[in-house]
Design brief:
The complex is a heterodimer of chains A (127) and B (222). Chain A has no helices and 10 strands. With 127 residues, chain A is mainly beta. Chain A has one domain. Chain B is of the alpha/beta class. Chain B has one domain: Rossmann fold (3-Layer(aba) Sandwich). In chain B, the strands form 3 sheets. A 6-stranded mixed beta sheet of chain B has the order 3-2-6-7-11-10. A 3-stranded antiparallel beta sheet of chain B has the order 1-9-8. A two-stranded antiparallel ribbon of chain B has the order 4-5. The longest helix of chain B has 14 residues. The chains are: A mainly beta (127), B alpha/beta (222). Strand 10 of chain A pairs antiparallel with strand 3 of chain B, so a sheet runs across the interface.
Chain lengths: 127, 222
Amino acid sequence: MDVPNVPQSGNSESRERATIGKSVVIKGEVSGSEDLYIDGQVEGSIDLRNHSVTVGPSGNVKAGINAKFIMIQGKVDGSLNASDRLDLRKSAVVTGDVTTQRIAIEEGAFLKGKVDIQKEMGKGAAS
Amino acid sequence: MKFFRSSSNQDAPQATAHKLTRRSSGIGEIARILNSQEGLCVLDVGATSANNIQFLTSQGHKNYSEDLLRASLDPALRTKDDAGNAVIDSKKFLDENLVYPNGRFDIVLCWNLPDYMEESLVKPTIDRLWSQMKAGGLLLAFFHTRDAGPDSTCYRYHITGTDMLEMQEIKFAPPGRPASEKQSPRLQRVFNNRHIENLFRDFASIKFFLARDNIREVLVVR
């Protein structure tokens, strides 16, 4: 898939989407109440618990990501906590532990870390 | 060192998106354990498989995934020895990979990693795995026989919960090359039985299963 299919977090309020472009570098904490598309560099932490985070093909993230939906097409070095769903596309390179309810991994994706699938949001992990 | 098949080789089996299947006595034994116990700690060092993650976690096991073949192709691992020969820095490789406490894993799924990995990394990797497995833990590995040939397809293996494995051909771009130049990893060598026994000499026991597709399955107990 060459065109990013960005997951939406569902409610109408969240249809807005912020974008961190290819030339943007952010160091620090990223939080908010809208979906986020990252094609630049982020170092620190990303917390959008009720929204979606997409790391685009050019995205390079050195941060833990906490969101409802997470889709990775680029590179992430950090833990991923998706309360609903995690998608790793074929170009994804992820180093870090993963916690989610549902996971989809395309052939070619690289994942290095522990995977916990939670049965229900807020309940203990399956492991 | 040649890690990928020649792109001009048109005789090799063609890449397919669909999954092939093969019967595996080794995974059959492991599946019986996975199906009858809970909370096992499983390390999969093959190519990342969503099927395996889903299967293991749905059974209540802890799953760790680490694609060691791809990690071993990191250009940053290339260095030169005192004689100027190109070598891979095994110390750096183990500093960056398989970093877990000793005695963590009940089951390690090696698949065909030893056959496709640079030779200097194989023994250090198996030794590291030995230290990270629990006493009595199981390790499954597949080795090609001499009849397999250097262009034997490298597969990603998917657990089904039975003694049947699903397989998909692995292709990825060599380091520094665009994704459009994906190739299959090349078989690096063929281990004979004595080599395999030496490789796992620190383990408590070793069991061979001979398959009809030029593969020897090896199930070793820590």
